[in-house]
Design a protein that fits this description.
This protein has about 80 residues and is mostly helical. The chain has a domain of about 25 residues. The chain contains one helix and no strands. It is elongated and about 85 Å long. The model has no long low-confidence stretch (mean pLDDT about 90).
């Protein structure tokens, strides 16, 4: 009976160790994904900045102020027209 109890305790500890190992792998994958997302966002910002600079220098375009943008709602087309 004691051997069975000790075997159960060992089995539980091994299961906990496996769970902890799997958890650390998932945490590392999450950190890697966050790092890759930040790297890609920085690259996107850099490329977007280059496009804006080219538009400004080559085409003389300027970004419009956000308060100057007006959105127009277009009513849906009527059926039967």
């Amino acid at each position: 009976m004691i051997a069975l109890m000790l075997g159960g305790i060992v089995w539980i500890n091994v299961a906990r160790l496996n769970l902890a190992t799997e958890t650390s792998v998932v945490i590392q994958q999450s950190r890697d994904a966050q790092f890759e997302t930040a790297r890609l966002q920085a690259e996107l910002d850099q490329r977007n900045g280059a496009v804006v600079d080219r538009a400004r220098t080559r085409l003389g375009m300027l970004p419009s102020p956000s308060e100057g943008v007006k959105y127009i709602d277009v009513p849906p087309a009527r059926a039967g027209r």
